[in-house]
């Protein structure tokens, strides 16, 4: 993140949790904005945000926050975006850009757009970066470095406003890509939403086993299960809203997943080692391809505290059959 000329004068942040708090820290560290005004619903959170000092000003209401702001970012659970847009709509400054960070894009577009006046630019966004932690203390400035931020502007969006928001996210360290909201929701259903659903399921299943005790599950957790427990510790409100608002795409991907799971189940039942081996060989190649992309675009290390960016060298192809 290099210090640069401000892209916006006044950033208003509605919601100051992991993502809002990280945006504030990164925007300040990069110099992407001149000043930051933040708000949160509860007095306790506002007090904490003031203590943490990542905003220049902490105000009590959403309306006070957006006054005079040329960039407004709504960083709250996706199900709450519509009512917030209705609340702030009449108070937005001429020419302001309004954006969000929601993990689902079509519902946010449908819920927010009708409440926004014609004199503002609405450019929804999704930084594809996060952790299982929530709240203002969880944020950190490097969260977006070398991660994707997907913009899903409506068809008639002002190209200059889209470019300006892309510049903002680039200043925060992200790589920016643009696509339609519906396509975004399909892609994220398989790459993010379904994996979270599987994690929530498997951790619940392990907890309900009769013959294996909870303490045995914890004691003998191998790497895979531990990773699932991290993901299954993610915020319940946020993920409830994601599954409610991306229902169709998630159900479509879940259908595909269940078919593939049935095939593997059959292979295990029949003792079909060849089918299992072929499947695992294909998935290993996919993982190696992801690692290769990660290494090709690896950014300098900014002291990232979280995030599974691959840094280990990719091992040479290996098959235990060759031993
Ligand atoms: N957590 C993650 O890893 C990622 C989350 N996102 C998206 O970012 C958004 C925010 O998530 P986080 O920052 O992780 O959550 P968080 O729980 O850390 O923060 C959410 C903030 O929204 C506020 N809030 C909740 N309901 C509200 C309402 N009805 N009206 C006004 N404010 C309300 C909370 O008080 C809190 O300040 C969500 O839409 C999520 O889908 C996007 C990328 C990654
Ligand atoms: O913590 C993890 O592994 C995540 O996957 C974080 C995350 C959660 C939601 C998003 O929309 C994007 C990233």
What would you note in describing this structure?
The structure is a single chain. With 323 residues, the protein is of the alpha/beta class. The chain folds into 2 domains: 8-179, Rossmann fold, CATH 3.40.50.720; 183-297, 6-phosphogluconate dehydrogenase C-terminal like domain (6-phosphogluconate dehydrogenase C-terminal fold, Orthogonal Bundle). 48% of the residues lie in helices and 12% in strands. It contains 12 helices and 9 strands. It has helices spanning 18-30, 43-52, 62-66, 81-88, 106-112, 159-171, 181-207, 214-219, 223-231, 236-245, 247-270, 273-296; strands spanning 8-14, 33-39, 57-59, 71-74, 97-100, 121-122, 125-127, 148-151, 175-178. The strands form 2 sheets. Strands 3-2-1-4-5-6 form a 6-stranded parallel β-sheet. Strands 7-8-9 form a 3-stranded mixed β-sheet, covered by helices on one side. The longest helix has 27 residues, at 181-207. The radius of gyration is 22 Å and the shape is elongated. Bound molecules: 1,4-dihydronicotinamide adenine dinucleotide (NAI) and 3-(4-hydroxy-phenyl)pyruvic acid. The site of 1,4-dihydronicotinamide adenine dinucleotide has 25 residues, from α1. Residues 301-323 are annotated as: Disordered. Pathway: Amino-acid biosynthesis; L-tyrosine biosynthesis; (4-hydroxyphenyl)pyruvate from prephenate (NAD(+) route): step 1/1. Its EC number is 1.3.1.12.
């Amino acid at each position: 993140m290099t210090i640069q000329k401000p892209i916006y004068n006044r950033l208003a942040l509605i919601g100051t949790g992991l993502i809002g708090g990280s945006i504030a820290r990164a925007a300040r560290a990069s110099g992407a904005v001149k000043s930051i005004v933040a708000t949160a619903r509860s007095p306790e959170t506002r007090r904490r945000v003031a203590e943490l000092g990542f905003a220049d000003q902490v105000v009590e209401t959403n309306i006070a926050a957006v006054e005079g702001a040329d960039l407004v970012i709504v960083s709250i659970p996706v199900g709450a975006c519509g009512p917030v847009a209705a609340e702030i709509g009449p108070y937005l400054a001429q020419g302001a850009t309004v954006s969000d960070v929601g993990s689902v894009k079509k519902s946010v577009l449908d819920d927010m757009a009708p409440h926004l006046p014609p004199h503002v630019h609405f450019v929804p966004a999704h930084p594809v970066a996060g952790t299982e932690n929530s709240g203002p203390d969880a944020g950190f400035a490097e969260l977006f470095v070398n991660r994707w931020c997907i913009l899903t502007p409506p068809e008639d969006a002002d190209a200059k406003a889209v470019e300006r928001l892309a510049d903002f996210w680039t200043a925060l360290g992200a790589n920016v890509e643009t696509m339609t909201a519906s396509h975004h929701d399909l892609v994220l259903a398989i790459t993010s939403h379904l994996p979270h659903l599987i994690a929530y399921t498997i951790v619940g299943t392990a907890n309900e086993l009769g013959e294996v005790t909870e303490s045995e599950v914890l004691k003998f957790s191998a790497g895979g299960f531990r990773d699932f427990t991290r993901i299954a510790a993610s915020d319940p409100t946020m993920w409830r809203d994601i599954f409610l608002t991306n229902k169709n795409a998630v159900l479509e991907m879940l259908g595909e997943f269940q078919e593939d799971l049935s095939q593997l189940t059959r292979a295990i039942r029949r003792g079909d080692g060849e089918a299992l081996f072929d499947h695992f060989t294909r998935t290993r190649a996919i993982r190696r391809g992801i690692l290769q992309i990660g290494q090709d675009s690896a950014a300098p290390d900014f002291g990232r505290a979280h995030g599974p960016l691959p840094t280990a060298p990719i091992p040479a192809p290996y098959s235990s059959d060759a031993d």
